[in-house]
Amino acid sequence: MKLISIVISMYNEESGIAFFSNNLIKELERIKNYNFEILWINDGSLDNTQLNIEKSCSAGKENVKHVFIQFSRNFGHEAAMLAGIDNSCGEAVICMDADGQHPPAEINEMLKAYEEEHEIVLMQRTDREDHGLIKSSMSKMFYTIINKLSVVKFQENASDFFLISQKIAELLKQDFRDSNRFLRGFIQEVGFNKKVLEYTAPKREFGESNYSFFKLMKMAFNVVFAFSNKPLRIVILISISFFLFTIAFGGYSLVQYFIADSIPSGYTSIIFFISLSFSLMFLVLTILSIYFEKTIKEIKRRPIYIVRKIEIQD
Ligand code: UDP
Ligand code: MG
Question: Which ligand is located closest to the Cα atom of residue 77?
Fold first, then answer.
């Protein structure tokens, strides 16, 4: 029988994890012709997530095997997904959240799409019940900006709920090891046969969202700089136009110097020029240093995550 891996990232999900895992396992038992391994990645939770998940998975099920991976500390959702993908053995890997916002009932449809020769199945939220106006317009703005800046076009409303074949998992294991990552981006970048399925994300019933406004901004920022070198080019363009303007203005001043009776005081324009050029210079330096910082980080090749413990339960 075919083996399918399911990767679940968990961070402080003690309140809802038992409910979710029961739901998931019930759903998987219903799907015949497959064996499943569920990789439960505990991303350094500070609560009883680990205890609760091990307890709720203790009853053995015929076609479901569990793998528990614990990180040494919190490394973030992306790192957790990658750890699951790294340790997966299935011929396809499905990533999903542990908070119930990625309904296990969709897995059947995803597998159907996979069987129709799609190596990537992206789940697209139609609407998020818990998304306020601010969060949705922010997400819209994020995709507009990143799609303008980046060579790769990102599917709007794509989520961290997706299926990839082992071939793509292998690519992520071997070749896409940037320390500044955005898995959704990579998955849309590699090509292959894709299918987009729609689903409605239910409200988070337990716990709280871990993505604060600040974290989302940080992610958007990382994505812009990871997938695009346009900020660098834009700054170069600004500098060139400013240089041309300087030449024109310089020429004008020179002509004035010879034609006019008295030398214009020019105090204002000097101040204007100096401040503008300094600000531009600093802008260029800032942008350069951002790329520089990213480069240093990549060169170091620090581990993306550190595993404290792996337990396999058949
Ligand atoms: N998560 C994680 N590490 C983190 C933050 C979140 O593994 O540092 C998990 C979390 O437990 C959940 C999933 O990633 O299963 C998505 O997180 P969340 O629900 O907070 O994000 P949202 O759905 O609001 O985008
Ligand atoms: Mg969530």
Answer: 1
Q: Enumerate the H helices of the chain as residue ranges.
A: 17-30, 49-56, 77-86, 107-115, 133-149, 166-174, 183-189, 213-227, 230-259, 267-300
pLDDT of the residue at 147: 79
243 CB-near residues (< 8 Å, 6+ apart): none
Nearest protein CA to atom 17 of ligand 1, as residue: 210
CA 17 – ligand 2 centroid, Å: 12
- Residue spans of the domains in the chain: they are 2-210+303-313, 230-300
Task: Give the ligand with the smallest distance to the CA of 203.
Answer: 2
Query: Could you give the percent of the chain with pLDDT greater than 70?
Result: 91
User: What pLDDT, on the 0 to 100 scale, is given for residue 211?
Assistant: 65
Residues with CB under 6 A from ligand 1: 9-11, 13, 43, 74, 76-77, 80, 97-99, 101, 209-211
The pTM for the full model equals 0.74
Instruction: State yes or no: pLDDT of 129 exceeds 80.
Output: no
CATH placement of domain 2-210+303-313: 3.90.550.10
The number of the ligand 1 atom at minimal distance from the alpha carbon of 201 is 23
> Which residues are registered as beta bridge partners of 42?
10, 70
pLDDT surpasses 60 at 54: yes
